Amino acid sequence: MPESPKYYDRLRRKWVAATPEERVRQWFIDLLAETAGVPDWMMMSEVPMKYGQKSWRADIVVYSGDGSPLAIVECKRPGVELGSSVAEQALRYSTVQQVAYIFLTNGSQTYAYGRTENGFEALAKIPTYQEMKEKCRH
Asked: In b/e form, how buried is each residue of 92-107, taking b as 16+ CB within 10 angstroms?
């Protein structure tokens, strides 16, 4: 039987099934590293967490130098609408992790949100890693 296609997840340091959502996750890891300047060792993928009695997994979490979480990324397979249910899922994770940023992506659409005193507001672009760390110092 032929082996199914796989992607190498450089954060988990292992080969994973090449699902459409995984393709988006790996693309976004590359984007965070290459465009935003996030070092690999400051990101984790498939991060387990509990919200109430339920267990969840955040697709990607970006951390600061002191180990506190800066951002959560929710990845969906291409074609999945990034509507209110996806935003609510990311907000649940942000409640657990207390992040300053939330990113939602399906590979063709990406939305970035930054924490304010009253919740989250849409951002025009994904901040750099330096900008993420600076915001969290204030």
From this structure: bbbebbebbbbbbbbb
Query: Mind listing the domains of the chain with CATH numbers?
Result: 6-137 (3.90.1570.30)
- The strand pairing partners of 60, in sequence order, are 45, 73
Distance CA 87, CA 15 (A): 28
Tokens read off for 63: 């951390």
Instruction: Output the CA angle 42-76-36, nearest 5 degrees.
Output: 35
Q: Model pTM?
A: 0.90
CA dist., res. 131 & res. 121, Å (int):
16
Q: For 14-27, what is each residue's pLDDT tens digit?
A: 999 999 999 999 99
